[in-house]
Amino acid sequence: MKLLVIIPIITKEFVKDPDKRVGTYVRPENKVDFANIDYGPASIESKYDHDMAAPFVVKKAEWAEKNGYDAIVVSCMMDPGVEAAKQAVNIPVVGSGEAGRQVAGLLGKNVKTVHARPLTVLQLIEDPEKAFECLLINGKKAIEDGADVLILGCTGLTGLAKRLQNELKVPILEGEGLALNLAQTMVDIGISQSKKAYPKPAEKKRILPD
């Protein structure tokens, strides 16, 4: 099985250790590749960034299907281009945000998303330890406010969930890993998104950069 993780930004530094990032979410015999979009924002922190990235996510998804991938994961908790990609291709497409939300609903009754604020997305690369400290502070506050499950609010925080869970004693979810696991399961059992829900777009002229 071949899975493609689309990184919907042009910054490549987030994926330094792909094997570690995949962790225990995917069986070792399955191949996971990571690919950034070719055009778009350096990070996604607004609707503007989201919409700028979306068409290039779809273009990369179409490339993945043509090149033999069995499923696609979009590595951003804002899910840019996910619904459009589900229309464009027949293979499973899973967004990190939707995966986190769906699984969280099975684990608790008061789900909160926790961010490493005040750090920006690009600052997560520069100082992972500071990112963890911010997560710990914000996670404790979310629990004090009643949260019983936390979702990491950015896939740039992937790899910090287990450590944070040990500190906070509630389930901490990483959307990218859950999306990979769900995509793997979909391929295993032979299902994909419904074409009644996500119909193939009509053929017409559309121009994007090569």
Annotation keywords:
alpha/beta, globular, four-stranded parallel β-sheet, Rossmann fold, 210 residues
Report on the architecture of this protein.
By secondary structure, this protein is of the alpha/beta class. The chain folds into 2 domains: 2-95 and 176-189, Rossmann fold (3-Layer(aba) Sandwich); 101-173, Rossmann fold, CATH 3.40.50.1860. It is 43% helix and 14% strand. The chain has helices at residues 18-22, 47-66, 82-88, 96-107, 121-126, 128-144, 161-168, 175-189; strands at 2-7, 31-36, 71-74, 93-95, 111-114, 149-152, 172-173. The strands form 2 sheets. It has a 4-stranded parallel β-sheet, sandwiched between helices. The chain has a 3-stranded parallel β-sheet with strand order 5-6-7. The longest helix is centred in the first third of the chain and has 20 residues, at 47-66. The chain is globular and about 50 Å long.
